[in-house]
Write a structure and sequence with these properties.
The protein is built from 5 helices and 15 strands. By secondary structure, the chain is of the alpha+beta class. Helix 1 packs antiparallel against helix 2 and helix 1 packs across helix 4.
């Protein structure tokens, strides 16, 4: 199993992978400042597969099996809830779901929901008071999206309880910079681990941080690395996998567990609609998976639809985001680890 001293090694490799996606978005984008959608796309297209590549040696050394799945999916579900004044409000549930499934001995699932926001000089360019209230309080809410031909989420109110460790803002800097400022176009894309971050590409902000729109106190790489360990405070909320989602019922104390599993399952269905999961997906969706596990994970809906990477295979370049009526899912990073 992983050791506590592995954290720092995992963290700086995660930082390298994260910066790789950000750098690629700056290099490839046609706009001077790529928006949150494009930044999330590049995070999934580049950062996820480099994360798998850079983490592999550490897991192999510890004899821990590891698999990483990454999916980009635009147009996330809407959350409807009542604010403190009793008025009905609607906003995006989030842009990205990060999940760690620890399998084998002492199994555990931990999940974190993130909403991406752009920052310039350390401050977000815009603030959404409705989204802020949802993430700070997480009052009872329902899920939907206007214009769907049919809804695939379980109907009814969801009460997820205390989600202090679940919801975060992921702040991506238009003006990220590090020293030494040297990047590489090809693997292994690693710089000295003691490089000085003058302005990190992605940081994580707690919803109760004031102001919430200022650069977070933790980098994205540090946060997802911390999800692999029992840290305090926790990175992500511990939830229960729901392999038999059809029989699960809201209002039985598993509302958050069901919501996480639904997002994973609906995203997988979105990918499965395509005959070519690696390329040609509608709307520039990226699907990626790398690594193997000794036994199947019944709570991972991506296992049978994402092929292993092949030499020379690249995710699609198309990033068009025109609307379609029937859409579901969310961008996902699913990290699975297994040790006896």
């Amino acid at each position: 199993m992983l050791r506590h001293e592995d954290y720092e090694e995992l963290r700086w490799r995660a930082e390298a992978a994260t910066f790789r996606g950000w750098y690629q978005s700056q290099r490839d984008s046609t706009s001077a400042a790529p928006d949150e959608v494009d930044q999330t796309y590049r995070l999934m297209r580049w950062s996820t597969r480099y994360l798998a590549e850079l983490w592999k040696p550490i897991f192999e050394q510890r004899k821990v099996a590891m698999r990483i799945s990454g999916v980009f999916c635009h147009k996330t579900p809407l959350a409807k809830f009542k604010d403190t004044g009793g008025n009905e409000r609607t906003c995006e549930l989030g842009d990205l779901l990060v999940v760690h499934d620890r399998l084998g001995r002492e199994p555990c699932r931990r999940a974190a929901l993130m909403q991406a926001k752009r920052t310039v000089r350390g401050t977000a360019s815009a603030s959404d008071d409705v989204q802020n209230e949802l993430y700070r309080r997480f009052p009872p809410f329902s899920l939907s999206r206007k214009g769907f031909k049919k809804t695939r989420f379980k109907q009814g109110e969801r009460n997820v309880g205390d989600v202090d460790s679940f919801a975060r803002f992921a702040l991506v800097a238009d003006d990220a910079w590090m020293h030494p400022h040297r990047v590489y176009d090809r693997p292994p894309f690693i710089w000295p681990r003691h490089a000085n971050w003058l302005r990190p590409a992605w940081t994580i902000s707690h919803p109760k941080q004031d102001p919430v729109t200022s650069v977070g106190s933790e980098t994205f790489g540090s946060f997802i690395s911390g999800m692999l360990f029992d840290t305090h405070p926790a990175r992500g909320r511990t939830v229960q996998p729901i392999p038999d989602l059809g029989s699960a019922v809201l209002g039985t104390g598993l509302d958050l567990d069901i919501t996480v599993q639904e997002l994973l399952d609906l995203t997988a269905r979105r990918i499965a609609k395509s005959k070519h999961p690696w390329g040609g997906l509608p709307r520039g969706i990226v699907a990626f998976q790398d690594g193997t596990l000794p036994s199947p994970n019944p709570a991972n809906p991506f296992s049978d639809i994402l092929p292993p990477p092949r030499e020379g295979m690249e995710p699609p370049e198309d990033t068009s985001v025109e609307d379609i009526e029937d859409e579901e899912g969310m961008s996902v990073i699913l990290i699975e680890t297994f040790s006896d």
